[in-house]
Amino acid sequence: MGKVVLAGGTGFIGQFFEKEFKGKGDTVYIISRQEGHISWDDKSSIVEALEGADLLVNLAGKSVNCRYNERNKREIMESRKRTTRILGEAIEACIEPPKLWINSSTATIYRHAEDRPMTEEEGEIGTGFSVDVAKAWEEVFFSFTLERTRQVALRISIVLGKDGGVMTPYLYLTRFGLGGKQGPGTQKFSFIHVEDLYRIVQFIQRREDLSGVFNAASPYPISNEKLMAEMRRKMHVPLGIPTPGWMLEMGAVFIRTETELILKSRWVVPERLLAEGFEFRYPTIEDTLEAVLK
Predict the structure, then answer these.
(1) Residue 25 Ramachandran class (φ > 0 left, ψ -120 to 50 alpha, else beta)
(2) How far apart are CA 48 and CA 50, in angstroms?
(3) Are the C-beta atoms of residues 116 and 72 closer than 8 Å to each other?
(4) Helices (H), 167-238
């Protein structure tokens, strides 16, 4: 039995983590803007929760599933920097600080890549707003030098699971015959099953020699075209009408999101995790969709 703190732990990933940690007997504290949890404005309660904790996982930040107007861009950026800074300062105030602090980052930090995979060692950092957010997020995280708290930044790819996340729109598109390739279809889709993401956290917690940056992604990313073909096959939908880029742009405006979430080629592989011996339970898209859709 341990003590786990989930910051921003009320979303899809946080709810899965809470259930799993409690299932193995851990005491779980959640920091959130939602009522019934520790408030981000209650600094003393945050310090109290972190005191003697075995693990802190920070998942906090405004969703990127929105239009990138100036207000939303500011909130996306500041929500990540502010919450990370609050946690770092709270750890510094602890008498017995957490043993491990895992902070979310994003695989979107790498450039659009259709030529080769991006690893922690040889991946090329991209440009643009989403990359700026990821860089600023990690910069705040690693600005804290904590002698008694190990720090790991997880560059998380697109998380798939049964009860939410990005699966919902893909399911609807496929079900209604719109499950063809999106845009050129050649863009890479890096993903991870939410259970494997949880298992990575456990793996890093056990391995006290590990710190720094890790890519949290399946070892076998695929193209968008193959993803949609596999969705149709698993859901027994024979037809999938392709969606050209211009139509995606129109649709993104209508549903108030950005096409980058679909059209950016994320070719990310977990080189460090594989080298350290981590074994994925759902390494392929076939394994992942079988678990998610059954």
Answers:
(1) left
(2) 5
(3) no
(4) 167-175, 194-206, 224-235
d(CA 108, CA 41): 29
Contacts of 254 (CB under 8 A, 6+ apart): none
- 77-132 per-position pLDDT tens digit: 999 999 999 999 999 999 999 999 999 999 999 999 999 999 999 999 999 999 99
Sign of the CA dihedral running 110, 224, 59, 205: negative
Give the strands of the sheet with 158-161, arranged side by side: 164-165, 158-161, 191-193
| Per-residue pLDDT reduced to its tens digit, 263-282 | 899 999 999 999 999 999 99
**Which whole-number Å values give the CA distances from 119 to 75, 94, 122, 131, 217, in the listed order?**
29, 35, 5, 16, 10
Determine contact, residues 117/170, Cβ cutoff 8 Å: no
Give yes or no for a contact between 264 and 126, defined as CB atoms under 8 angstroms apart.
no
Q: Is 111 helix (H, G, I), strand (E, B) or coil?
A: coil
User: What amino acid occupies position 178?
Assistant: L
pLDDT tens string 174-217: 888 889 999 999 999 999 999 999 999 999 999 999 999 999 99
Specify the pLDDT at position 255.
62
State the Cα–Cα distance between residues 173 and 182, nearest whole angstrom: 11
Q: What are phi and psi of 58, to 5 degrees?
A: -100, 115
Q: Is the whole model's pTM more than 0.85, yes or no?
A: yes
Q: Which residue has the higher pLDDT, 254 or 179?
A: 179
